[in-house]
């Protein structure tokens, strides 16, 4: 079957079983050309397996994968990894320890114009002048850039990155992440990276795909995913969320915070999701809430507030006037998302 699309990657109904465990269950996944995608999910959800199927390191049991309009995998087809024009960056970088930086970058290139391309790529990743160094003479961040330059050298149609920043310490990680994004944008690459770090996925990717238990739960822009999760599971996995029960009638819902407005009409029992920053509080001796606890993060804080039988997280900026045992008035100032009660 041929399915021409505008997607750089198109996975349809892809399943994979190891021994008797179904690791990927009817995956539908698309990534537009020129964009940066993230596969996000907890450990064991199957994200690395999906990346490896796209790379061609494993065969698929069912479904199809296209790279542009080329079918690269199905139950009957398996284009070998080296013929897929896919570049890889591994978690451990996998640099050849006995080769210099320049030789590492040039590894997948033919002889022609090799030196020029190596220089060009080292310049691109900000390592011009380090071609003669050995990998062990570089910092973690520099090694990651060499791995990126090596993957980009043959001009791949697609770049796959497996937890590319997890080996870097926190201080360096942010810096390397934005440098990587800049480089990928500069060369107009289509790239897909795997992460279990939601902040990394939200801050870096154009499209975030949440996987849970071998299934794709939602694929959307970071804003859409955070503000309009389509399931309670996604809302819970991405960011901090408050859940409360309610009874919906048309565009309003009755719940422990009173009557609230819904963005779409619903009926009957629902579960409401309200982000901590969608709640506001002010000190009030006769208010509806009591501060039970405080989690202070510097540029913001989360306050655990008891309201009747509910316990909700409320986000504020750093303030000195809020502390446990203070009575406050809590109100809803942001979007309320409703799911059919499960
Ligand atoms: N070659 C294999 N043989 C048997 N089971 C495997 C194989 N590869 C992966 N699995 C199993 O498949 C499941 C999904 O693994 P996968 O590595 O895709 O998850 P992940 O979401 O990337 O997790 P992590 O973030 O921990 O790497 C796990 O239960 C894993 O043990």
UniProtKB/TrEMBL annotation:
CDD domains: ABC_Carb_Solutes_like
EC number: 7.6.2.9
The keyword Kinase is annotated on this UniProt entry: no
Top EC class, one word: translocase
InterPro entries linked to this entry: AAA+_ATPase, ABC_SmlMolc_Importer, ABC_transporter-like_ATP-bd, ABC_transporter-like_CS, ABC_transpr_FbpC, Mo/tungstate-bd_C_term_dom, P-loop_NTPase
GO MF, one annotated term: ATP hydrolysis activity
One Pfam entry name: ABC_tran
Residue span(s) of domain ABC transporter: 9-238
Organism encoding this protein: Herpetosiphon geysericola
Keywords for the protein's UniProt record, in alphabetical order: ATP-binding, Cell inner membrane, Cell membrane, Ion transport, Iron, Iron transport, Membrane, Nucleotide-binding, Translocase, Transport
The protein's name in its UniProt record: ABC-type quaternary amine transporter
Gene3D superfamilies named in the record: P-loop containing nucleotide triphosphate hydrolases
Keyword Signal on entry: no
PROSITE patterns hit by this protein: ABC_TRANSPORTER_1 (PS00211), ABC_TRANSPORTER_2 (PS50893)
GO CC annotation terms, alphabetical: membrane
SMART domains: AAA
Cleaved signal peptide residues: none
Top-level lineage group: Bacteria
């Amino acid at each position: 079957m041929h399915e021409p699309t505008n997607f750089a990657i198109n996975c349809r109904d892809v399943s994979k079983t190891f021994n008797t465990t179904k690791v990927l269950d009817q995956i539908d996944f698309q990534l537009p050309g020129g964009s940066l995608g993230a596969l996000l999910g907890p450990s064991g959800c199957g994200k690395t397996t999906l990346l490896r199927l796209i790379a061609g390191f494993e065969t698929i049991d069912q479904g199809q994968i296209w790279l542009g309009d080329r079918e690269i995998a199905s139950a009957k087809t398996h284009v070998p990894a080296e013929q897929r024009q896919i570049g890889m960056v591994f978690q451990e970088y996998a640099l050849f320890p006995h080769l210099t930086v320049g030789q590492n970058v040039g590894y997948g290139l033919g002889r022609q114009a090799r030196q020029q391309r190596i220089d060009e790529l080292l310049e691109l990743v900000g390592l011009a002048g380090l071609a003669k160094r050995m990998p062990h003479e570089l910092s973690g961040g520099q090694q990651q850039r060499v791995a990126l330059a090596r993957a980009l050298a043959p001009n791949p149609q697609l770049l796959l990155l497996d937890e590319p920043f997890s080996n870097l310490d926190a201080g360096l990680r942010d810096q390397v992440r934005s440098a990587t994004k800049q480089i990928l944008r500069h060369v107009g690459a289509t790239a897909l990276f795997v992460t279990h770090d939601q902040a990394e996925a939200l801050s870096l990717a154009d499209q975030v795909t949440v996987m849970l238990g071998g299934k794709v739960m939602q694929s959307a822009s970071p804003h859409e995913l955070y503000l309009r999760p389509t399931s309670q599971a996604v809302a819970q996995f991405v960011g901090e969320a408050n859940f409360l029960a309610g009874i919906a009638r048309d565009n309003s819902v009755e719940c422990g915070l009173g009557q609230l407005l819904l963005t779409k009409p619903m009926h009957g029992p629902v579960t409401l999701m309200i982000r901590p920053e969608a709640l506001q509080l002010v000190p009030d001796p006769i208010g509806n809430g009591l501060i039970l606890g405080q989690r202070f993060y510097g540029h913001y804080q989360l306050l655990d507030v008891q309201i009747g039988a509910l316990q909700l997280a409320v986000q504020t900026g750093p303030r000195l006037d809020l502390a446990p045992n203070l009575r406050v008035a809590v109100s809803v100032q942001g979007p309320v998302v409703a799911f059919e009660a499960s």
